[in-house]
Amino acid sequence: MNQMLRLQMTLALAFLLSIAGSTQANNHANNQNHSAHQLELLAEQGDISAQYELGIMYAEGRSVDKDLSKAKYYLDKVINSPNKTRPAFVNVSKIYWEMFKLWNY
Questions:
Q1: Local structure of residue 62 (DSSP, 8 states)
Q2: In terms of C-beta density within 10 A (0-12 exposed, 13-18 middle, 19 or more buried), how is residue 74 classed?
Q3: What is the pTM of this model?
Q4: Per-domain residue ranges of the chain
């Protein structure tokens, strides 16, 4: 990958993460911080923001053990969700999918 393309991808990622981060701050009622278990319950009920949060948490190992299989599972749910009200979540999930090469898990 050439240097210009890498720079463009980095800038796009930074932009999308900033959008998603500001959106994520308003995800759940009263801006509560949910545990991974609580997020898993919400995610299995189809909550796209919980699926997104879990995918990122597992990909980065943030507040949970890093688990790329679980990251793949949750980010795949976001990417393929019929709920298209959160396009930033879908776009950032696709970037994580590529960054962590989740198709391998």
A1: S
A2: buried
A3: 0.72
A4: 33-105
Query: Which whole number is the average pLDDT over 12-25?
Result: 54
In single-letter form, the type of residue at position 31 comes to N
Taking residues 76-85, report their average pLDDT.
Answer: 89
Query: Which residue pairs from 91-97 have beta carbons closer than 8 angstroms and sit at least 24 positions apart in sequence?
Result: 91/16, 91/20, 92/13, 92/16, 92/17, 92/20, 92/52, 92/56, 93/52, 93/55, 95/12, 95/13, 95/16, 96/55, 96/56, 96/59, 96/71, 97/72
Q: How far is residue 26 CA from its own chain's centroid?
A: 15
Find, among 91, 87, 103, the residue nearest to 12 by Cα.
91
Cβ atoms < 10 Å from Cβ of 22 = 10
Token pair 């597992």 is found at: 58
